[in-house]
Amino acid sequence: MTRWPSANHFLIAAIGLSIAGVIGGIAYVKLGVFNVAAAHPHSQLVEWLTHETMINSVKRRSDNVPLPPTVSEAQAKRGFCQYEAHCVMCHGAPAVAREQWVNGMNPEPPYLLDATRQWKPRELDWIVRNGIKMTGMPAWRETLSEQQIGDVVAYLEAMRQMPPQTYLRWRNAKVCAPR
After folding, report:
1. pLDDT by residue (tens digit) across 18-35?
2. Cβ distance 92 to 111 under 8 Å?
3. In the chain, which residue ranges form alpha helices assigned H by DSSP?
4. Which of 5, 66, 114, 134 lies 20 to 30 Å from 172 when distance is taken between CA atoms?
5. Which has the closest alpha carbon to 55: 107, 12, 2?
6. Is the pTM of this model over 0.70?
7. Do 148 and 80 form a contact (C-beta atoms < 8 A)?
8. What letter does residue 143 receive in the DSSP assignment?
C-alpha cells in the first residue's frame, strides 16, 4: 500500500501543475486577455517585471563597453547636436519639454536630466546603441556612427554639470547649424 504523499505523488502533481501552467499561459495569449492598448497602464506587477528585467539586462550586457577617459567640450557639443536631432523630442532637456505626443507612449520615455545618476556611462552607451524593446527606444547603431553614439553619451555625462541655460543658449546660438 502506497502512503500519501509519496515522492511519486509530488512528481505527478508537479507535472500536472506544469502542464496546467503551460495550457493556462497559451490560453491567456490566445484569448487576448492582456490589454495591449498604450492608453491602458500596466499593472504594478507587469511594470515591475519589465523595469527590473530592463535594468538588470542593461547592467549585465554593458560591462565590456569601452569608453573614452575624458569628455571634451567639442565632443559634448557634437553630442548636444545629436541629442537635439534625435532625443530631445522624447526625453526633453534642461528647460525644454518633451513633445506632447510622447504622453501617449506606454511606457513614457524618461526625462534624461537625471539619467547619469541612474546609469553609468557604459550603460547609457549600451542603451543608446541597442535600444530597449517594447519602449519605442530605437537601436541608434542602425542610424548613428560609433562617434555619434559616443558623443551622445558624452553630452549626457556633461549635461549633469551644465547650468540649465546652456542647452537653450546652444540651441539659440544654432551651434548645430551647418557652417
Report:
1. 999 999 999 999 999 988
2. yes
3. 7-30, 44-61, 73-86, 88-91, 115-118, 121-130, 146-159, 165-172
4. 114
5. 107
6. yes
7. no
8. T
